[in-house]
Amino acid sequence: MYDAVSRPTPPADATAWPRRITHAVNIGGVLVGGGNPVVVQSMTNTDTADVQASVRQVAELWRAGSEMVRLTVNNAESAAAIPRIVDKLAMMGIEVPLIGDFHYNGHQLLAAEPACAQALAKYRINPGNVGFGKKKDTQFAQLIEFAIRYDKPVRIGANWGSLDQALAARLMDENSQLSEPWPAARVLREALIRSALDSAHTAVELGLAKERIVLSAKVSGVQELIAVYRDLAQRSDFALHLGLTEAGIGSKGIVASAAALAVLLQEGIGDTIRISLTPEPGTSRTQEVIVAQELLQTTGQRAFTPMVTACPGCGRTTSEFFQELAKVVQAHVRQQMPVWRITRPGAENMTLAVMGCVVNGPGESRQANIGISLPGNGEAPAAPVFIDGEKAVTLRGDNIANEFLALIDAYVDRRYAPASAQ
C-alpha cells in the first residue's frame, strides 16, 4: 500500500477507505462520529490560570463557530481555573464543551482538583508523554480511571513530536530482524499508529467504553498524515480527530492543512478536525476556526456561512471596488451568522456572487442566490443584481454596497423565515 518513499497510494475510489465507526461519542452534548457531521474544534493559547483572558478567548472562538475548545491544564493553577472558566461562560450563556489537555502530570492534577475533573467535557491524553518507564502504565491507568469515575470521554492523541520512544525502539529492533525490513519512516509511522491503538485497547481493558474514545495520530507532513490516517481508519473503528500538527503560519499552514485533510475527508475519514495554525502576530485565534469551517464547506461536508463567489480581477477590472465589495459582503454575512443561525435557519446554505465585469459576471450571478455584476473597464456604469437566476434590479451611484447588503438581508428575511412565521 506504500511505496519506498512512504508516500500513500491513492485508493481506486473513496470506498476503499470507508468510515467504519458506527457509534457516536458524546462530548458535552456534541456528538462525534456515528454518521454525525464533522465537528470543528479549536484550542486557546492563553494562560489557562488567567481566568478572564481564557474566558474571553473561549467566547471568541465559540462565537466564530468552534464547537469544542481545548485548554492546556499543566499545573495546579490552571486546573483550579477550569471550573471558574466554565461557570463564567455559563453566566454569558455560552455552553461549549471544554477539553483538558494533559501531559506528564495529568493524573496528579485530576486527583488534586476533582472540580476540574468534573467540569471538563473530555480529557486529552498523549500516550507518548503520559509517563515514562515503569510509571507510564500506572499513570495512564489512573487517567482512564478518572475518565470512568466522572463519565468523561477521552481523546488518546499520539503525536509525531512526542512519540513513545520505547515502542519505537522495540519496533525498530523487530523490523531489523525481518528478511525484508521496512524503511525507517514506515516503522516510525507504525509506532505512532500502534501507540494510539494499543493505548485505546488498554483503556477498553481498564473499563472505558469504546464509545467514550476518540483517537488521533498527528504528524506535520501532508503525505505522512494521509498515510497514517488511512491506516488508522482501516485498523480501528474508533472516532478519529484530524489535524496536521504544527501546520505553520499564514498561507503555508492553511494550504498544508487543507491539502491533507481534504483528501481524508473526501474518503470519509475523520469525525472532528482542528486546523493548528500559528497565529500571525496580533491576529485573532479565530482564524483556525474559520479555515476549518471553510474547508468543511468547500468539500461539501457542512455549511456554516453563505459562500461568496468573487472575481479574482484582470485587466478588465482595474477598479478595486469589486474587491472592496466582496470583502464587505463576506464580513457582513459572517457577522450576521450568529443571529441568522438562530432566527433564520438555512441561511448558511445561501450563495452569493460579486463579479467584476461582463465576461463571467452575469453568468456567475445567475448561478448564485444573489449576485451582482459590476461594470468593468469601458462598460456602462451600472450593476445588475440577479436573485435566484432572474435579473431583479440595477444598482447605480455611490451607495451600491449598502444597497446590495440591504438586498441580501431582505432575501434572508424572506427566504429563511422561521417555520412558525411562514
UniProtKB/TrEMBL annotation:
Pathway: Isoprenoid biosynthesis; isopentenyl diphosphate biosynthesis via DXP pathway; isopentenyl diphosphate from 1-deoxy-D-xylulose 5-phosphate: step 5/6. Coiled coil: none annotated. Transmembrane segments: none annotated. [4Fe-4S] cluster binds at C311, C314, C357, E364. It holds the Pfam family GcpE. It catalyses: (2E)-4-hydroxy-3-methylbut-2-enyl diphosphate + oxidized [flavodoxin] + H2O + 2 H(+) = 2-C-methyl-D-erythritol 2,4-cyclic diphosphate + reduced [flavodoxin]. Keywords: 4Fe-4S, Iron, Iron-sulfur, Isoprene biosynthesis, Metal-binding, Oxidoreductase. Binds 1 [4Fe-4S] cluster. It comes from the Bacteria. Its EC number is 1.17.7.3. GO terms for molecular function: 4 iron, 4 sulfur cluster binding; 4-hydroxy-3-methylbut-2-en-1-yl diphosphate synthase activity (ferredoxin); 4-hydroxy-3-methylbut-2-enyl-diphosphate synthase activity (flavodoxin); iron ion binding. Its cofactor is [4Fe-4S] cluster. Residues 308-409 form the IspG C-terminal domain. The keyword Protein biosynthesis does not apply. Residues 22-292 form the IspG TIM-barrel domain. One of its GO terms (biological process) is isopentenyl diphosphate biosynthetic process, methylerythritol 4-phosphate pathway. Converts 2C-methyl-D-erythritol 2,4-cyclodiphosphate (ME-2,4cPP) into 1-hydroxy-2-methyl-2-(E)-butenyl 4-diphosphate. Belongs to the IspG family. This is 4-hydroxy-3-methylbut-2-en-1-yl diphosphate synthase (flavodoxin). It comes from Stenotrophomonas koreensis.
